[in-house]
Amino acid sequence: MALAPNSAVLAYLNGPAGIPRLKLPDGRVVDRPHPEWLMHQLRWRWLLDSWEGGEAYRMAVYGFDPQGMPVRNLIRHKREYPSAFDAGTSSQGGRPPGSDPAAQATDDDYELRRARTPVPTFVAEAVEAHLARIYSREVHREGPERLVAWWRDVDGRGATIDDWMVGTIAPLLMVLGQLDIIIDHPAIPAGEEVRSRADEVRLGLDSCVASYILPENLTWWSLDRLGGYSECLVREVADDGEVRWRYWDARIWAAYDSAGALVRGPVEHPFGRVPVIRLFDRRRPRSRNIGLPRYESIAEIQREFYNRDSELILSDTTQAHPLLQGPEDYVQADGTIPIGPNWLLPKKKNTGGSGATYEGFDVVPFPKEGADSIRLNKADLRDAADRAALLLKPAGGAGTSGSTVGQSGISKRLDQAAGNDLLGKIAAMLGRAERQIAELVLLVLDDGKPRGDAAALRVNYPTQFDLFTAEELARAISQFQGIVAAAGHAPATESQLMRKLVRLMLPGLEDGDYAGFDAEIDAYLDSRSASGPARAGSPDELSPGSRPDCSKSAP
């Protein structure tokens, strides 16, 4: 019998609940989330679970189906629903968080599949591969001294801006397609009282700390004409599990308990705007404040692979114990067959006529075509996930025979041309996000009155990534040198072709760099064409006696 659910389990599985009835400081009442939040909150939770993987992915519940069973990443078959005779023996809530997955792997095929199927990590692999390439190059940052000091400790716990971006912000932003960042002064330590500016400096309250808000926890908002928050409502969870709600607008903030009662505020703040910004990877064209996740297609492939893998595990488990077909006379009334010592199975003796015969037992083989089909489908899904992340070896590379070849482990890498384009877009997005965060930090540090030195802010992410292997790079250089050595017959045409080739070989550089390469190519071709056809190795340089006689036929 499955473990009975409890309120803590259901709260863990169901995620954020609806907001209570809140009376805002101006008298308005908010009692339901924003319509865009209602439309996408389950998708955000699913994307986050897909990236996190493991137990979060296995245990996640995204609602309940018409028969009252939880909707999970592992799809339930029709035959896996409890029958009417099993009413009351199955649990909708599942096992408690933190318990071993094998706790429910009994005679329930669905729970057996869920417990024994490892969770794929396609989304995490793609994100890690892309971020590793981007942050392997140095990010150039410039700004006022107070901003540089904040970059050394962005969250009040010693994390640098690089650690914070690589380990937290960049992955969440790429997976969810959006992420809310809140910047505020540190909280006043318990037992302390601030009476002067000196007290603020002594307690470190003149600095600021940054933290992120998952989109599922920012449930209600209104936007100004520029798309920023004019007010918003944030769900906060304390260390003891208590849920609170915090309201922000351009002048004040107020805190509410889980029942919607005002517990603190309204408290004025000096920032002149809501200190929360929503960063976007890309925007959904039919929504005003919703991002478009870059890895959504990979998450879909991951879920399908997870389900097919579970089918294969169940199939292999079932086929490991074949069916035995034998004489009906050996079957007892309770459905068992008597077996002697050392698992000896007797044969039925038939007597009649001149002699005796024995009726044997036969093993009924399982059909293998279904399992083989699932294995092929799994390989196709793995390749599809790699293609979506551009983690493929191009056709013609060593060890390839088809159009593309999926790889595994550390051999995965990004294609030079398409990979640079993708990484360039992601790097540009991350640079834009960092600049938005830095601008808000300066606003908070200056208490809503920015100084003129904010114009010195610079955040430059790398735009060029070395995705060639050493062998490919050496081969490309050798081939380019051969092309250059043979150039000069059609300078205008060759100039255009060589310019394109340089851009394909060295993608992501600045326009000024390409302009220098173009000038160098033109100068070289001009010198080659000015020297005329008589140059080293040209046909005109051969003596008449050494030229082949085309009037003679071959022997």
* Alpha-carbon Rg, integer: 34 Å
Query: Which stretches of 5+ consecutive residues score pLDDT under 50?
Result: 1-15, 88-92, 395-404, 406-411, 534-548
Strand order of the largest sheet: 6-7-8-9-10
Q: Count of helical segments?
A: 14
Write a compact overview of the structure shown:
With 555 residues, this protein is of the alpha+beta class.
Could you characterize the architecture of this molecule?
By secondary structure, this protein is α+β, with helices and mostly antiparallel strands. Among the domains are: 145-189 and 201-291 and 420-460, no CATH class; 470-532, no CATH class. It has 14 helices and 18 strands. The chain has helices at residues 7-14, 35-52, 54-59, 109-116, 122-134, 145-151, 161-176, 197-203, 296-319, 369-389, 416-445, 470-486, 491-505, 511-530; strands at residues 22-23, 29-30, 140-142, 178-184, 209-213, 218-223, 229-237, 243-249, 252-256, 262-268, 276-280, 323-325, 348-352, 355-359, 362-364, 392-394, 404-406, 458-460. It has a five-stranded antiparallel β-sheet. Strands 5-4-11 form a three-stranded antiparallel β-sheet. Strands 1-2 form a two-stranded antiparallel ribbon. Helix 4 (109-116) crosses helix 9 (296-319) and helix 9 packs antiparallel against helix 10. 25% of the residues are buried. Residues 1-15, 88-92, 395-404, 406-411 and 534-548 have low confidence and may be disordered.
